[in-house]
């Protein structure tokens, strides 16, 4: 019986997606879990269960104690840099290729959507792709950052000797204005928002589905665990995101 219900829900999502004028995806940490990247809040495995983010990933920590900041972030860079896209990333890229998805708005910093082939990607929390000097603005690709670390384990600009910071949004920082403006534009214009792997609990990104609903659009949710939008979702799938999106592709004409 459960498989029949799941199949019916996937079929409904395929129908909604096929009939949408403008569909966008909103993804969170859960979309990268099948790639071996833990999410933040899952009991027992979430990153923030093991460490207090305010002690390692806050802008104030970077500014007052860069050694402590980089002790956390340097191995994270190395770990994320080795990860590869999974079937969920590939499915979203394929939906875009087929003209069924206008864009992917992501909270993730891991670059995996782009690696999978998605072209229109709005990274509202930034990306590990680059790091920048806070003094002169010099930009360094991920592959070059490792060479910037001094004897204390702090990344120092090769151009001016200033402090180098990852181009990701830390706690205590505002989201990039241009990226959020684009995300809000896409959400407001969408008649279907496909939310994948996100608890939709962190604002302001968690407010994006509300923009779609306010414009008369629908919200579909593919994630494990509850979200604030479950009661108003047109479709709610709770299985593994890679399996659910693979099934979605198979259900499309």
How would you describe the overall organization of this protein?
The chain has 253 residues and is of the alpha/beta class. The chain has two domains: 1-37 and 84-125 and 174-253, TPP-binding domain (Rossmann fold, 3-Layer(aba) Sandwich); 43-82 and 128-168, SIR2/SIRT2 'Small Domain'. It is built from eleven helices and nine strands. A six-stranded parallel beta sheet has the order 3-2-1-7-8-9, sandwiched between helices. Helix 1 packs across helix 11 and helix 6 (87-97) packs parallel to helix 11 (241-251). The protein is elongated.
Average pLDDT across residues?
91
CATH superfamily of the largest domain: TPP-binding domain
Number of domains: 2
* Helical segment count: 11
Summed up, what is this model?
By secondary structure, this protein is of the alpha/beta class.
Which labels suit this protein?
253 residues; alpha/beta; Rossmann fold; SIR2/SIRT2 'Small Domain'; 2 domains; six-stranded parallel sheet; three-stranded antiparallel sheet; 9 strands; disordered N terminus
Task: Annotate the secondary structure layout.
Layout: H1 2-19, E1 23-27, H2 47-50, H3 53-56, H4 59-64, H5 66-81, H6 87-97, E2 103-106, H7 112-116, E3 121-123, E4 126-133, E5 139-141, H8 142-145, E6 164-168, H9 177-189, E7 192-196, H10 208-214, E8 218-222, E9 235-237, H11 241-251
């Amino acid at each position: 019986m459960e498989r029949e219900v799941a199949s019916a829900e996937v079929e409904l999502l395929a129908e909604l997606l096929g009939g949408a004028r403008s569909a966008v995806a909103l993804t969170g940490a859960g979309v990268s879990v099948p790639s071996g990247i833990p999410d933040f809040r899952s009991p027992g495995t979430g990153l923030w269960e093991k460490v207090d983010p305010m002690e390692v990933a806050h802008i104030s920590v970077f500014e007052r104690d860069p050694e402590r900041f980089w002790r956390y972030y340097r191995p994270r860079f190395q770990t994320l840099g080795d990860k590869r896209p999974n079937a969920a990333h590939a499915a979203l890229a394929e939906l875009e290729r087929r003209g069924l998805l206008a864009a992917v708005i992501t909270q993730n910093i891991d670059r995996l959507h782009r690696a999978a082939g998605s072209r229109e990607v709005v990274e509202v929390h930034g990306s590990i792709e680059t790091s920048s000097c806070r003094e002169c603005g010099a930009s360094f690709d991920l592959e070059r950052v490792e060479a910037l670390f001094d004897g204390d384990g702090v990344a120092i600009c090769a151009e001016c000797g200033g402090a180098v910071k990852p181009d990701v949004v830390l706690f205590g920082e505002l989201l990039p204005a241009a990226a959020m403006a684009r995300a809000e534009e896409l959400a407001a214009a969408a008649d279907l928002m496909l939310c994948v792997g996100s608890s939709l609990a962190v604002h302001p990104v968690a407010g994006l589905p509300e923009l779609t609903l306010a414009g008369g659009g629908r919200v579909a949710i593919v994630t494990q665990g509850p979200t604030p939008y479950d009661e108003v979702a047109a479709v709610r799938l709770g299985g593994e995101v890679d399996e659910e999106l693979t099934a979605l592709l198979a259900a499309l004409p």
